[in-house]
Amino acid sequence: MMNLSEYGILLVEDSSTDILFIQRAFKQANIVNPVRIVRDGDEAVDYLAGQNGYGDRNKYPLPALILLDLKLPRRDGLEVLGWLKQQPGIKRIPVVVLTSSREDTDIDRAYDIGVSSYLVKPVELPALNKLVKRIDAYWLQTNEFPNIATAG
């Protein structure tokens, strides 16, 4: 099992409040992985493709895990997921949808496109803290990761 503590998490989230709460939950869970944040779907694609200011993989390395909101400006999370799953070098990066949507159509479409997991953001902080601990326990400590290309 590889040590993932140096590998980052890409949080794709447009809500400043949600970003703050997720960062707090990661800190309380003692998750040491760096969390990089992009705030819309186009920025997520740019980051993952290594373009438009994200070309330096030392500064902007590919993540070990993507936490993806669905309701994003410019390009929604399902469009980002669809784009990612078409990219040969990076399509294996695990993607966990972390969203407020419980709509069956969103859940079904996310799984049809190839999401690794679909989680609904809790509205209360204690529940978010528990969810983040579960994400850490499964995705960062237990799950076996595929090989991912080192360049976008």
UniProtKB/TrEMBL annotation:
It comes from Almyronema epifaneia S1. It comes from the Bacteria. Signal peptide: none annotated. The keyword Lipid biosynthesis does not apply. SMART domains: REC. SUPFAM superfamilies: CheY-like. This is Response regulator. PROSITE patterns: RESPONSE_REGULATORY. The modification 4-aspartylphosphate is found at residue 69.
